[in-house]
Amino acid sequence: MDDRGKRLRAVKAFHTFAWFTIEACMLYVLYSGIRGQSDRRAGTAAAVVTLETLVFAGNGFHCPLTAVARNLGDSTGSVTDIYLPQWIARNLPAIHVPLIIVAVVLHSRNLSARRKR
Fold first, then answer.
1. Contacts for 25 with CB less than 8 Å, ≥ 6 apart
2. Rounded to two decimals, what is the model's pTM?
3. Which of 19, 36, 95, 100 has its CA 20 to 30 A from that of 2?
4. d(CA 52, CA 34)
């Protein structure tokens, strides 16, 4: 494998690590919202998800690593094709938007109930 191929694999591995980290944060935000725990940890996890969402939206709703992958020789520019199941890779935004909405509703409910006490 040449140097560009190794760098492409590294970019895809980094993307997979980042994806798992962001997904773990998303799951924690949902879990803590269901449990009624709108605390600092939930806020930190929500900040990670928010930052990822802003970066994605700010890049025209494309992963910024797509251009890097394309520059390293991937004809599609995909950073998800090796390490994530194809269905998940294609549908990440459609999966995340409802989850983000549910998380916002849960934590809004929790914070509202806390203010009323």
1. 45, 46, 48, 49
2. 0.84
3. 19
4. 22
In the block, which residue shows the tokens 């997904």? 23
Closest C-alpha to 103, from 30, 38, 43, 34: 30
- What span, in angstroms and rounded, lies between the C-alpha atoms of 49 and 26? 6
What is d(CA 54, CA 65) in angstroms, rounded to the nearest whole number? 14
pLDDT, tens only, 41-52: 999 999 999 999
Please give the helix or strand (H or E) that residue 97 lies within, else none.
helix 86-116
Number of domains composing the chain: 1
Token readout for 108 is: 């809004």
What number of other Cβ atoms are within 10 A of residue 30's Cβ?
A: 18
